[in-house]
Amino acid sequence: xxxxxxxxxxxxxxxxxxxxxxxxxxxxxxxxxxxxxxxxxxxxxxxxxxxxxxxxxxxxxxxxxxxxxxxxxxxxxxxxxxxxxxxxxxxxxxxxxxxxxxxxxxxxxxxxxxxxxxxxxxxxxxxxxxxxxxxxxxxxxxxxxxxxxxxxxxxxxxxxxxxxxxxxxxx
Length: 171
What we know:
This protein is of the alpha/beta class. The chain has helices at residues 3-11, 28-41, 72-80, 92-100, 118-133, 146-170; strands at 19-22, 45-49, 61-65, 86-88, 104-106, 112-113.
C-alpha cells in the first residue's frame, strides 16, 4: 500500500474515539441509534453486558460478554476505556468513574454527565438508595419515550460533530 493510500485509509475513520455502551439496561431505540451512528461515522462501538448481545454484522460494532455479578460490566468499561471515549450509561457511579478517567458519559435520555455536577448526582443517587433500603417507596423513572429518544439523538449528534471538528483540526 502506498504512503498516500495508507494516509487516506487512516483518515476515512472519523476518530480514535470509541463508544462504550453499558448495554444491560440500555433502551433498544438508543442501541439502534448507536448502530446507525457507528456505521455513518465509522466509530468503534462496543456493547458490554453480562448476557450475550445480538449486534448487527459490522466492522464498527462489537459486543463483549462479561461474567455475571454486580458492576462487572462497569469495571470492564472503566478498565478498558481511554480518555476521550464516550460511554452511554444511566449508572451514576459508572459515569463518575468515566469522567475521572477523562471520558464522556452520556445518559440514554440525552443528558451529558459533567465534572461540575457528578458529585451532586452521586449524593442524590446514594440518598435515594438509602431511602429505598429503609423501605420508602420512591417510585422510578418514567418510561422511555419519544422526547427521551430525541434528546439522546441530539446530544449524540453534538458530541459526534464536536469529535469530527476536533479530528479535522488535527488533520
